[in-house]
Design goal:
Elements (H helix, E strand, L loop, with lengths): L2 H11 L5 E5 L3 E6 L5 E5 L4 E5 L5 E5 L5 E6 L4 E6 L7 E6 L5 E5 L1 E2 L2 E2 L3 E6 L5 E5 L4 E7 L2 E7 L6 E6 L5 E7 L7 E8 L5 E9 L6 E6 L5 E5 L16 E5 L5 E6 L5 E7 L5 E6 L2 E6 L8
Antiparallel strand pairs: 1-26, 2-3, 3-4, 4-5, 6-7, 7-8, 8-9, 10-11, 12-13, 13-14, 14-15, 16-17, 17-18, 18-19, 20-21, 21-22, 22-23, 24-25, 25-26
Length: about 300
């Protein structure tokens, strides 16, 4: 038995208990505000739901224009990647206290986005988001002011993204389901100006299903929602089961925490101590306790 396999088995045997937080339809894009409320999307019905710390579930926004990935920024505003459900694909920002919504981006160089997918921010408050079908990564500096950082052919199917606690490393999930497609996490150096250089492969899920979304803790470990429990008719194998893959800043698998439901999509940290990981998978929002506090992005 290899040391890596032994570490994985020990981590699984000591794994915290997975709990169901609530059940809706097809869950995605969880985000937590300063009050501990969890917002997550129901892609099937184009809605955004809100779960209070006490467990109360309510509809936050109906007709959410195909909202997918979410994040709550440093000013407690909800950022949403809207894949289009009646309007143009766009990225919006909603002030949680007032409900006022503004459009941050809905095109680049005169061309509309395909389907904005996931979003995060850096210590300066700049936003970064992926356009999954369009194969691009953008940075938003202010409403209507954005720069395309990555595009095909240098990337293929960009999905989840994160920035290290020190702001020096940018992580990007590639989720190409096609035969031979990139199914991995890329790492880049990120400059003070928010540009990306020095690409390297941080972790490779191939030939299994890659990650979808991911969170990061205070020590720089990534918590990646990845894998499959059942085949879904693509070239992806069942080599890696559905669950949370905890990956170190050195690109090593530290632990695996299985999730029984396909398809696992995304996750975020929350709770009073930021040690509760909320996980969207299929129709369910799960929660799982960890020992290291996570970053709320």
């Amino acid at each position: 038995m290899t040391a890596a396999l032994l570490l994985l088995l020990l981590a699984q045997s000591a794994a915290p208990q997975l709990e169901v937080a609530t059940t809706v339809s097809f869950t995605e894009g969880p985000a937590v505000d300063s009050q501990g409320n969890v917002y997550f999307t129901d892609i099937t019905n184009s809605r955004i739901w809100k779960l209070t710390p006490a467990g109360g579930l309510s509809l936050y926004r109906d007709n959410a224009n195909g909202a997918n990935g979410l994040v709550v920024d440093l000013q407690d505003r909800l950022i949403a990647c809207e894949g289009a459900g009646g309007r143009k694909p766009r990225v919006t920002r909603t002030t949680l206290r007032s409900g006022e919504l503004e459009v941050l981006a809905e095109e680049y160089a005169g061309e509309p986005f395909d389907t904005p997918n996931d979003v995060t921010y850096d210590s300066q408050g700049r936003l970064y988001f992926t356009d999954l079908p369009g194969g691009a990564v953008y940075r938003i500096d202010a409403p209507g002011k954005l720069e395309r950082l990555l595009a095909r052919p240098e990337i293929q199917s960009p999905n989840g993204l994160q920035i290290s606690p020190d702001g020096k490393t940018f992580y990007l999930i590639e989720a190409n389901q096609k035969a031979g497609g990139a199914r991995l996490i890329r790492a880049y150096d990120i400059s003070q100006e928010g540009r990306l250089t020095n690409m390297r492969v941080h972790y490779n899920f191939f030939p299994g299903r890659s990650g979808d979304g991911m969170s990061i803790d205070e020590q720089g470990n990534l918590y990646v929602s990845a894998g499959l429990n059942r085949s879904r008719g693509t070239s992806e194998t069942l080599d890696n089961n559905a669950g949370i893959y905890v990956i170190s800043p050195a690109g090593k698998l530290l632990s695996f925490h299985p999730v029984p439901e396909d398809t696992i999509t995304n996750n975020t940290f929350g709770g009073p101590d930021r040690k509760t990981l909320y996980i969207t998978a299929g129709k369910t929002l799960y929660k799982l306790r960890f020992s290291i506090p996570g970053l709320l992005r």
